[in-house]
Amino acid sequence: MSEARVEQRQQNGTVLLVLVGLGIAFALLVALLTAAKAHTGPIYGEANMLYAALVLYAGAAALYMGYGVTGIERYVNSATVLTTLGFLANTAAVAHRWSVAGRPPFSNMYEMLLSFVWTLALLTLIAERAYKVKIIGSITMPITVVSVILMQLLPSDVRPLVPALQSTWLQVHVSLAMLSYAACAVSFALAMMFLVQDGMKSESFQALTSTGTIAIYAAMLITRFRGGALAVTAYDLESKAEVMVSRGHPLFIQIPDLGWLYLLVLLSALAPLALYVVGQIKKMPELFDAGSKAMFISIVVQVLGLAIFVARVKNGQYASPDADGFYRTALPANPFLLAGIVGSILAGLLYLLLLWRREGLQRMLPPAEVLDRVTYKIIGIAFPLLTLMIAAGAYWANQAWGSYWSWDPKETWAAITWLVYAGYLHMRITRGWKGRRAAWFAILGFGVVIFTFFGVTYLLPGLHAYAAG
Amino acid sequence: MGLKSLWNKLYDTLSSVKTGIFLIIVVGIFSAIGTVILQRPTSEPEDLQRNYSPETLLWLDRLGLTDIFHSGWFLVLLVLFCTCLIFVSLDRWPNAWKAYTKPVRFATAPFRASLPFTAKFNAGNEAAALSAAEKAFQKVGYSPEKVSEGGASGLFGERQKFAVFSVYVVHLSLLLIFAGYILDGFVGYRGNIQVTEGQAKNVIVLRDNKGGSTKKELPFFIRCDAAGMESYADGSPKKWWSKLALLENGREVVTKTIIVNDPLTYKGIRIYQASMGQSSTPRLLTFAAAPAAGGEPVMVDVPINGKATLPDGESLSVLRFVPDYYIQDNEVFQKSDDPENPAIQLGLTDAKGETKKLWILYAQANSTQGQAAPYIFSIKNAKWAQYTGLEVSHQPGQFGVWAGVVVMAFGLMLAFYAQHTRVWATIIESEGGKQLWVGGTTNKNRDRFQTKFEEIKAELAKELGTPASKPKA
């Protein structure tokens, strides 16, 4: 019986390799299709360098994941080389933009992602060298790939700064934010690895992953579902800008039936979670296997959903209840939707990696105790940076808007993030919280970071709105 | 149940970490709710009405959920949290103070058993063994003191003992920040004012949830001498500026050209550049003056606070400008600020100094025809004054906040990077004769201390010529 299981796992491993390959090929295809911007300018220019970084990072991500699947040491060495080269290209892109704009690149979503990716790649290389956590690239590099793809879709022209942004404190504030958020991302990756090493059951990871997917699709449907259609932002391809109804209010157009499709995706993600819950309550472990199959189906459905989303966005004009006529849309106008969909698929792929290669993964990862300690150390770096980031932001707000604290949603959520990490450190230092409880705390913290970074910008209104475009 | 037991109960509740954590979680939850429900001070009233049904809005208002961050109960929550922080700190202070001033100097048997790092060495000569231990401690950076208890002698050394206070520094910084913020809640204010070029004003509209109905008089007048904006080539704004003068008792006390990100501060009141626009007050009016006797009209530019001279020597001035007028009981009144339908009263002063008052009532005719004067005037053009939108704020508590931030940075450095380590040595009796016992502990970063303790052991082994005794299995 057990031999049969092992056999089956190995077969699944091959399936996985194909799946991961297909996933990456698909991601690259999306990138190539949508990154069809004119790559003019000097060869060392920002667009070309960023494109080179994308290709190198994608290669590195594939190799890191390949290492995760097969455990072949050679892969990770090549991955490190690719990451380093990608990082150099990324540095060139940052430097070129900096020199063209005459200021550090922090002023809109595109520039912030550019800096974020740079920091994340740097931290990955550091974590690999200094802490010997080789597998970390299999989590951080896919994040960089998604981010760079997202950047290809965002308006990237160098825009002059509006008066409120002409402050040195802006650079201080945003660079601290990037550093601390990247450190939070690394601590999240480490906490997940800790859970793997600590022997958390695969079905619990499955429940975690499907909960994440459900949260993403629920957020999209709550804000964008319009009687079966999905509301997206209208985009003017000529001027490369969103169509606005009035200042701060973009025009929403409705893609028919896409809302139903995404409701279906949500249901497909609910199935594995439901099977997990029932399996837990009724003590029927056989349901967990069914849950894994449901999870696999859900991932396939999500990939289909992405393909249909891209196809419908790229072709066709849609009506809006707020204005006459038909409007076009484009992927750049909907980075929040796209990031959610792609992020969810990647999380699913990582879960499959864990499901099929758990023993191999556990051999490759550092011991649980080390991961626990390094997570704490990284948060010990992230937290002071987070504190200074909020303080610099408050000081800047005091110079620009007349108040150091306005309870703007972004501010409030930054404070909540701070509280969560303060809670982690407090419990760790005074109560000796370690291991699994601490890891969950670190995961929660990064969830709040993601919400503060993306969710607040695209879901909640506020002063930081200029960051959206 | 007396007052005393009630106090004890209150003290126990407030000095419990659990209460503090509970309170801060409640603050966090309500803060999150405040980012989801539209808040009155930051949203347009129409937005609230569009998003919520009237009953929902009524209840949200009643529960104070449309202005969470300025409501009394939120402030009470913050104050409660601060109180809890103070009680928790006070409750634990005596222990920390004792650890700082009167640390355990001599390692007694039960204390020895509680330490995470210990080692034993066979020692022939007591004094030589202790001096070897002293040397080993000194080598890794301690300056040990000689201690004794009940005839037994030993050594004690510690480093960075101020780390004991790091938690108090962090708590103090939080209190400073909250105190500053709460102070601003009581004495601070924030509002806005629009001043047209040439105007001086001293009443601001406060920014609160009452929709602009609360006004406040400043202790000085703000006069705007000039205002303007510059744009980039693509039309987006590059710079907004206003040349301001503050007047106290009619005297100019300070002048400054402010821009966004560079406010003017006077007596703790800060004035910020917020917006810019065209006012309905003209700066310069251009009239066509046609001689009543007939002939070609001439164009005259009349500055709003000055006069212009006509070809025949008369001077022309604008006595009144009403941007949008109506007439009732033969009087001119202002209907709106929209300069679509102006009424202009002109003063024409001849060489003898006699002034004739003439009206242009735009809705009737753009002309003074029919009013006895040597000219017929009609309005041809107007240049409008800029107004500058200023944000005015008084937040004396911010200095508490900044001080808190600096103290917090310091406290966090202490909490994360200051490592309080202690080491002891003493001579113990065991079955095989006298032994040198060394032990140590650290408040954090066990790995680093472990290497240090290994160094001590290696040094001792070298000095005493004997390896550390194996602990019994």
Mean pLDDT of chain A: 82
Mean pLDDT of chain B: 88
Rg for CA atoms of chain B: 40 Å
Q: Which structural class is indicated by helix and strand composition of chain A?
A: mainly alpha
Q: Unreliable segments of chain A (pLDDT under 50, ≥5 consecutive)?
A: 1-12, 462-469
The total count of strands of chain B amounts to 20
* Total domain units of chain B: 4
Strand fraction of chain A equals 5-15%
- Global geometry of chain B: elongated
Oligomer: heterodimer
Q: First CA to last CA of chain A: what distance? A: 57 Å
Largest sheet of chain A: 3 strands, antiparallel
Trace the largest sheet of chain A across and list its strands.
Answer: 1-2-7
State the helical fraction of chain A: over 70%
| Biggest chain-to-chain interface with counts | A-B, 41 and 50 residues
Name the structural class of chain B.
Answer: alpha+beta
Q: Report Rg of chain A.
A: 22 Å
Number of helices of chain A: 13
Number of domains of chain A: 3
Q: What portion of residues of chain B belong to β-strands?
A: 35-45%
Largest sheet of chain B: 9 strands, antiparallel
List keywords for this structure.
heterodimer, A: 469 residues, mainly alpha, 3 domains, three-stranded antiparallel sheet, two-stranded antiparallel sheet, 13 helices, 74% helix, B: 473 residues, TATA-Binding Protein, nine-stranded antiparallel sheet, five-stranded antiparallel sheet, 20 strands
List the helices and strands and how they pair.
The complex is a heterodimer of chains A (469) and B (473).
Chain A: H1 2-34, H2 46-70, H3 73-101, H4 109-131, H5 137-153, H6 168-197, H7 202-224, E1 225-226, E2 229-233, E3 235-236, E4 241-242, E5 244-246, E6 249-250, E7 252-255, H8 258-282, H9 286-314, E8 318-320, E9 323-327, H10 335-364, H11 368-400, H12 409-431, H13 435-459
Helix pairs in contact in A: 1-2, 1-5, 1-10, 2-3, 2-5, 2-10, 3-4, 4-5, 4-6, 5-10, 6-11, 6-13, 7-8, 7-10, 8-9, 9-10, 11-12, 11-13, 12-13
Chain B: H1 3-14, H2 17-36, H3 45-51, H4 54-62, H5 72-101, H6 109-114, E1 117-122, H7 126-139, E2 145-149, E3 152-159, H8 166-187, E4 189-196, E5 200-206, E6 215-231, E7 237-248, E8 251-259, E9 264-266, E10 269-291, E11 298-303, E12 307-309, E13 315-322, E14 324-328, E15 331-336, E16 343-349, E17 355-361, E18 375-394, H9 398-417, E19 421-430, E20 433-442, H10 446-464
Antiparallel strand pairs in B: 1-20, 2-3, 3-19, 4-5, 4-18, 5-6, 6-7, 7-8, 9-10, 10-11, 10-18, 12-13, 13-16, 14-15, 16-17, 19-20
